[in-house]
């Protein structure tokens, strides 16, 4: 079974267990996870809209897409619809979606007063409930193929970091060299703004929907995050990580289709407990010394997925 179908099955199982028989998605990460579609990347913010709908009983998907490039074959052409800003057209599309009018519980991954009213009109007998936490929990642990995709994205980010560290020019020139190296390695789409400040570089990449990253200081201490990484084991709590963290700033957070929970540092993460198959971005900074790696929590020793390319 292809990766996006494995993810979709996992999401449907989680939604069904919560009694949700219809899902309306507007968040790009959830849409990527469920559909596997490669949609146009945009850097700006946009209001919530019903970009993707999923019937959990039939697995039927309707998707906002102006063409079929990058859309998996299991989503039929007649299940794609174009962009519109017309509330009336959106209403008509939702009403025509098989199963939504009869739904008892509709999950939604973002909220606005207008969308709440629209869904209440489309599914008059349904309870409208948030589905963010349900989907986040389904996505929390990674499938083996997801780990492979994250590692491939890490290689792209590592190529950018290596090029920036090796370039003799200004910070702006080194940044440009790093971005060019990322593009040559497979993706020029950043997960966050690249950082090039003197000896410090930190690059992140989105490739095939998954984030990879690498942060380094030229001639920095390779042991800066060693203790923190070693503490990333199943059953570890936020307090365990705080005891293992170096003095200075540090952050441990989920890594998958971008920035994900858990989020743990000196202030956040109370109640979090790590489990096997979570992928984490583990970073720390002391003065000009900075280091960040992407780490897979395993049943034994944490595995570093982000490795230098040079």
Structural summary, described in words:
The protein has 310 residues and is of the alpha+beta class. Helices cover 33% and strands 24% of the residues. It contains nine helices and 14 strands. The strands form three sheets. The chain has a six-stranded mixed sheet. The protein has a five-stranded antiparallel sheet with strand order 11-10-12-13-14. Strands 7-8-9 form a three-stranded antiparallel sheet. Strand 10 (249-256) and strand 11 form a beta hairpin. The model has no long low-confidence stretch (mean pLDDT 93).
What's the short story on this structure?
The chain is of the alpha+beta class and 310 residues long. The protein has 9 helices and 14 strands.
Helix proportion: 25-40%
What general form does the structure show?
A: globular
Strand order of the largest sheet: 4-3-2-1-5-6
**Please, how many helices?**
9
Average of per-residue pLDDT values: 93
| Structural class computed from helices and strand pairing | alpha+beta
**Number of strand segments:** 14
The helix/strand order is: HEHEEEHEHEHHHEEEHHEEEEE
Nearest-angstrom radius of gyration? 21 Å
Instruction: Summarize the biggest pleated sheet.
Output: 6 strands, mixed
Low-confidence region ranges = none
In whole angstroms, the N-to-C terminal distance is 35 Å
- Strand fraction band? 15-25%
List the helices and strands and how they pair.
Blueprint: H1 3-17, E1 22-25, H2 28-35, E2 52-55, E3 61-64, E4 80-81, H3 87-95, E5 105-108, H4 113-122, E6 127-130, H5 132-140, H6 144-166, H7 171-185, E7 195-197, E8 200-207, E9 210-217, H8 226-230, H9 238-244, E10 249-256, E11 258-264, E12 279-286, E13 289-296, E14 303-304
Parallel strand pairs: 1-5, 3-4, 5-6
Antiparallel strand pairs: 1-2, 2-3, 7-8, 8-9, 10-11, 10-12, 12-13, 13-14
């Amino acid at each position: 079974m292809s990766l996006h179908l494995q993810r979709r099955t996992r999401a449907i199982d989680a939604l069904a267990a919560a009694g949700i028989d219809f899902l309306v998605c507007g968040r790009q990460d959830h849409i990527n996870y469920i559909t596997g579609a490669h949609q146009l990347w945009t850097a700006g913010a946009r209001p919530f809209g019903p970009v993707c709908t999923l019937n959990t009983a039939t697995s039927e998907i309707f998707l906002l897409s102006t063409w079929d490039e990058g859309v998996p074959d299991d989503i039929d052409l007649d299940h794609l619809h174009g962009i519109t800003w017309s509330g009336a057209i959106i209403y008509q599309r939702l009403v025509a979606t098989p199963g939504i009018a009869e739904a008892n519980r509709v999950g939604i991954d973002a909220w606005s007063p207008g969308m709440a009213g629209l869904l209440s009109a489309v599914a008059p007998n349904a309870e409208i409930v948030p589905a963010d936490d349900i989907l986040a929990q389904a996505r929390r642990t990674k499938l083996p193929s997801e780990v492979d995709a994250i590692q491939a994205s890490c290689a792209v980010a590592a190529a950018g970091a290596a090029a920036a560290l090796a370039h003799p020019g200004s910070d702006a020139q080194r940044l440009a060299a790093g971005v060019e190296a990322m593009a040559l390695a497979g993706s020029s789409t950043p997960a966050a703004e690249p950082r090039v400040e003197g000896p410090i570089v930190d690059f992140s990449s989105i490739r095939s929907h998954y984030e990879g990253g690498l942060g380094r200081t030229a001639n920095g201490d390779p042991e800066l995050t060693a203790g923190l990484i070693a503490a990333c084991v199943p059953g570890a709590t936020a307090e365990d990580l705080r005891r293992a963290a170096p003095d200075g700033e540090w952050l441990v957070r989920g890594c998958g289709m971008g920035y994900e929970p858990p989020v743990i540092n000196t202030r956040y993460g109370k109640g979090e407990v790590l489990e096997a198959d979570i992928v984490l971005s583990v970073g720390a900074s002391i003065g000009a010394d900075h280091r960040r790696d992407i780490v897979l929590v395993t049943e034994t020793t944490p595995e570093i997925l982000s490795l230098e390319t040079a």
